[in-house]
TrEMBL record:
Organism, as annotated: Emiliania huxleyi (Coccolithophore)
Protein name: PITH domain-containing protein
Domain PITH: 13-184
Keyword Nucleotide-binding appears in the UniProt entry: no
Pfam families in the cross-refs: PITH
UniProt region (Disordered), positions on chain: 176-197
The UniProt record lists the keyword Disulfide bond: yes
Any single GO CC term annotated in Swiss-Prot or TrEMBL for this entry: cytoplasm
Keywords assigned by UniProt, alphabetized: Disulfide bond
Classification via InterPro entries: Galactose-bd-like_sf, PITH_dom, PITH_dom_sf
Amino acid sequence: RGESRLWRGPPIPKMAAQQSHYDLFEQLELPQCECLNAAKDHTLRSALTPSDEGFLQSDADEELLISLRFMQAVRLSAIVVAGPAASAPSELRIFANPPAPLDFDSGRSNAPTQTLPLTPADVAREGRPVELRFVHFQTVRELTIFVPGNMGNEEETVIARLRLIGLPVEQTGAKRSEAEQAAASKADWLGSGIHGA
């Protein structure tokens, strides 16, 4: 199980590699993750799941609003985004631990923790890790990513893969049991499944 979590894509930036950072997919509380404006047949789960051959695609226009929740606090060092050259995101507006849920208006107007411009080289093939300002992502429990548009000004934005690279924060005191962690990753606390997936 531990082996499957190791990053198998392009080399992670040196700082992250030295600290053994990896793909945090298994740390996501999937039932609490959602994507607004996702097409019905091309959902967030497809972009997050390593073995899925599908992709995430916007529906009504080019914008996407992705909300992610982790089972425990994590340190994020990089994000990997892959997608087609014309329709992959041109920029990510990243909000760490937003005090309230964001909508499209607040995604456009609120000051993000970091704005991450993407280049065609960043999103080619499997994507390559783009470093975050590590000091701002030391204890992340929730992450919202607003995608305002894509590289070719297409009507739909496509994300083939979305990877979050980092490490869980070592906790002191009471920890979740394995059963509690399994319940958090599989259970549907809101009774509505993985939103937008």
